[in-house]
Write a structure and sequence with these properties.
The structure holds 2 protein chains of 2 kinds. Chain A has one domain: Rossmann fold, CATH 3.40.50. Helices cover 34% and strands 25% of the residues of chain A. Chain A contains 8 helices and 10 strands. The radius of gyration of chain A is 18 Å and the shape is globular. Chain A starts with a strand and ends with a helix. Chain B has one domain. Chain B contains 11 helices and no strands. In chain B, helix 6 runs parallel beside helix 11. The two termini of chain B are 21 Å apart. The relative contact order of chain B is 0.12. Classes of the chains: A alpha/beta, B mainly alpha. Chain B: Keywords: Membrane, Transmembrane, Transmembrane helix. Chain B: GO terms for molecular function: ABC-type transporter activity. Chain B: This is Nitrous oxide reductase.
């Protein structure tokens, strides 16, 4: 569904993405992990067309996304730090996005109800806590039943209850055969969600593996341990690093 | 496009600054007509007020508004909206609200008190100057991510066109007073939208008779219909070119 070939991006002198190649298909739930500043968010923003790559090609449903915008109808995006117009209320923001999307398809208001956002719909965005802002972001990402969900650190800042609600929702959407891309640092949270894992380091994709494959290869049951094992192995293979 | 423009316009209307600006323009225009006994003098006073405040408010308000909409722009970009459309909508929203407040504030007293062609001319020029400085605001806000720097650039642009440029022109005039530079002066005028607007109006007032030889040369050029069209085209270029550059930059910007 999303294909990335030879993607390069530099911010000034800093090379954020170096020849990234990826292939994401329908029905997969992919975890994008890696240390801070390894280019995860830049990669995600490139898919959304917010960051424009220097080189390389991104295709969505076999169509290059360069200079396109309609493909974003099929993407729900939850940013790491949601930034919203300060003086708008929750209700106004949601209403505005609805107006902009202008679809007549049925809206998915599960999260709106589960997070009880309707009760606070006249609170201004400026006054919201980080967690509540995340709830708004999550609601907006799921609202239009998109085929692809891109979630950047979805559970960071959410309380355990809310994060459980969100995880359940992600699992339900996964079962509908959607492509879900999650970045996270909390590997333990991802255990029961994901089917594939992409590990990035310093702008490179270190590996892209199926979870079952990964577990059987390393003889570990927990993702975090399996990854630690692989990382150790790759370090041994490259003594210069 | 209409939906986004509507959202932006409503947001600007909620901002009381535009209403205050309209009110100030109205007070200034009404009082200058009330104070002067003939409408030509009143026009001259308004001209100076317009050429000072309209550019300042247009460029400052628009620059700050653009920096404050960075969240809004980011939010829209993750939605199925064309990049160009966002920038165009912001431009249309901002420039139309500036033009409307000019029309409401200064346009109405002008239409009532100066019913001749100069009044109409002043309204057209005022609208154009508003749009020009909104376009310059777009340019200054895209040049840097730093809000303080961007607003600084906007103020410098305004200072340059409102004060420094005139000073430089005067300096040149005195330095080269012995040479026939009158024709060159016509060209130099085109380098500043405020001067274009000022000369455009002055030549339609009786005071142009007092401007001497240079005034006569100006009248020879700007007084003809060709000159009129050229100067309006130049003014429009002052709006189109900065906005076009900012649009190109916005299309390549990483958010």
């Amino acid at each position: 569904m999303i294909q990335i070939t030879d993607l390069n991006k530099k911010f000034g002198k800093l090379e954020v993405l170096k020849n990234v190649n990826l292939n994401c298909n329908k029905g997969e739930c992919i975890a994008l992990i890696g240390p801070n500043g390894c280019g995860k968010t830049t990669l995600i923003k490139s898919i959304l067309g917010m960051v424009l790559p220097d080189k390389g090609l991104i295709t969505f449903n076999e169509k290059p996304i360069k200079k396109e915008y309609l493909y974003r109808e099929k993407i729900g995006y939850m940013p790491q730090i949601g930034r919203y117009p300060d003086n708008m209320t929750i209700g106004q923001v949601i209403e505005m996005i609805k107006q902009i999307r202008n679809t007549d398809q049925e809206l998915d208001e599960d999260l709106l109800k589960a997070f009880e956002l309707e009760k606070m719909s006249d609170k201004k965005m400026r006054t919201l806590s980080g967690g509540t802002t995340q709830k708004v972001s999550a609601t907006l990402a799921f609202l239009f039943n998109p085929d692809v969900l891109i979630l950047d650190e979805p559970t960071a800042g959410l309380d355990p209850l809310a994060s459980e609600i969100l995880k359940d929702k992600i699992i339900r959407e996964k079962e509908k055969g959607k492509l879900i891309l999650i970045t996270s640092h909390l590997l333990s949270e991802l255990d029961d969600l994901i089917t594939e894992i992409i590990f990035m380091q310093e702008g490179n994709v270190l590996f892209h593996k199926n979870i079952a494959e990964l577990k059987s290869e390393t003889h570990e049951h927990k993702i975090s341990k399996a990854i630690a094992k692989i990382l150790k192995r790759t370090r041994k293979n490259e003594p210069n690093h | 496009m209409n939906r986004i423009i509507k959202i932006i316009l409503l947001d600007i209307l909620k901002n009381k600054i535009v209403l205050g600006y309209t009110l100030i323009l109205a007070i200034l225009s009404w009082s200058s007509f009330a104070l002067e006994d003939n409408s030509a003098k009143g026009l001259l006073t308004i001209l100076n007020v317009i050429l000072f405040t309209v550019p300042l408010v247009s460029i400052l308000f628009s620059t700050i508004y653009l920096y404050n909409s960075s969240e809004f722009i980011e939010l829209l970009l993750s939605q199925p909206v064309k990049r160009q459309k966002i920038w165009f909508s912001l431009f249309i929203g901002l420039s139309s609200s500036m033009v409307f407040s000019f029309l409401a504030g200064a346009g109405i007293p002008l239409l009532i008190n100066a019913t001749d062609s100069v009044g109409v001319m002043m309204i057209i020029v005022g609208c154009l100057v508003s749009v020009v400085f909104v376009a310059l605001a777009f340019l200054s806000s895209i040049l840097t991510r730093d809000k303080a720097k961007g607003i600084g650039i906007a103020i410098i642009i305004w200072l340059y066109f409102a004060l420094l440029f005139d000073g430089m022109v005067l300096f040149l005039l005195f330095q080269f007073a012995d040479y026939p530079i009158e024709t060159a002066m016509v060209g130099i005028t085109g380098l500043s939208p405020i001067d274009l607007a000022r000369i455009q109006i002055l030549l339609h007032l009786d005071v142009s008779a007092m401007m001497g030889y240079t005034g006569a040369i100006f009248k020879d050029f700007f007084g003809t219909s060709v000159g009129l069209i050229v100067s309006f085209l130049l003014l429009s270029l002052w709006a189109v070119v900065p906005f076009y550059i900012s649009l190109k930059k916005f299309n390549r910007k990483d958010l």
